[in-house]
Automatic annotation (TrEMBL):
Protein name per the record: Sterol desaturase/sphingolipid hydroxylase (Fatty acid hydroxylase superfamily)
Record field: transmembrane: 12-31, 43-65, 85-118, 139-172
A Gene Ontology molecular function term of the record: iron ion binding
Keywords attached to this entry: Lipid metabolism, Membrane, Oxidoreductase, Transmembrane, Transmembrane helix
Source lineage: Bacteria, Pseudomonadati, Pseudomonadota, Alphaproteobacteria, Caulobacterales
Pfam families referenced in this protein's UniProt entry, alphabetically: FA_hydroxylase
Length: 263
């Protein structure tokens, strides 16, 4: 199993690198915010945070997996695989459960003050592009990963589906944070089902009535279902202030790593 996890981490990293390059290319061709050269200075910080977080989760993966097994043993629950569903239906149900859990986890990282301190690092980026998608504090990646994997283990979601979702959300985190101006008719239709760059940009607004909305990771249906969907007209989104009101991110990677412990 450890070999499988290692191989998965390697492929996930390779896919992330390819999608990031493609996202940057799209930003150059169809930028939403013009005059973005100064943003490149943030890339080093954001990408280094990704390296630290990815490395930490990869190193802890075997122990996280063992913890999930222990939790599963102590919380008896009929697993999905015991329902004797057709494979295609099992995959669909599992995907929906994982994406719903990701939505609820994201909401919790906004609603619980201690968790918000970790997630605030992501929102403290005062500009937004594909690199923002991987700007996460390592502790957020670890805490969120442990909690979600333990719950999915109890539910009996197949590991291969969890891994497949991990690759998909890794791709989508670049897509949703891209500084790309999709034609509004396309964005409007797409966000009926999935989270789009225009929809997610509202989530990064300094206005917390907007920041505390649009929590979906891949599917947008959860925000519509639970009343957390917010929209802005297309011509307002490029001018929206991005970041956390009254909070200035720490300088460099070390400053970002210290952010959760600042008052």
């Amino acid at each position: 199993m450890s070999d499988l996890i290692f191989e998965f981490n390697r492929w996930q990293l390779a896919v992330a690198a390819v999608v990031f390059v493609l996202s940057v290319g799209a930003e150059q061709l169809w930028p939403q915010v013009r005059g973005r050269d100064a943003q490149r200075k943030r890339w080093v910080v954001n990408l280094l945070l990704f390296v630290v977080g990815f490395g930490a989760v990869a190193l802890l993966a075997p122990w996280i997996q063992q913890l999930a097994v222990v939790v599963d043993r102590f919380i008896p629950f009929p697993p999905l695989v015991a329902m004797d569903l057709p494979v295609w239906l099992l995959v669909i149900v599992s995907f929906l459960l994982i994406d719903l859990l990701a939505y609820l986890s994201h909401l919790a990282f906004h609603a619980v003050p201690l968790l918000w301190r970790l997630h605030r690092t992501h929102h403290s980026d005062q500009l937004m592009d594909a690199s923002t998608g991987v700007r996460h504090h390592p502790l957020e990646a670890i805490v969120g990963g442990v909690a979600q994997l333990c719950i999915l283990a109890v539910l009996g979601v197949p590991l291969l589906v969890i891994m497949g979702y991990g690759v998909m959300v890794g791709i989508w985190q670049f897509v949703t944070h891209m500084d790309v101006a999709l034609p509004e008719p396309i964005d409007r239709v797409a966000r009926l089902v999935v989270v789009t760059p225009g929809m997610h940009r509202v989530h990064h607004s300094v206005r917390m009535d907007e920041g505390n909305s649009n929590f979906g990771m891949i599917l947008s249906i959860w925000d519509r279902m639970f009343g957390t969907y917010r929209r802005r007209v297309a011509n307002e989104r490029p001018m929206m202030p991005i970041g956390v009101e009254g909070f200035t991110p720490g300088p460099g990677v070390l400053g970002c790593l210290q952010e959760p412990f600042r008052r």
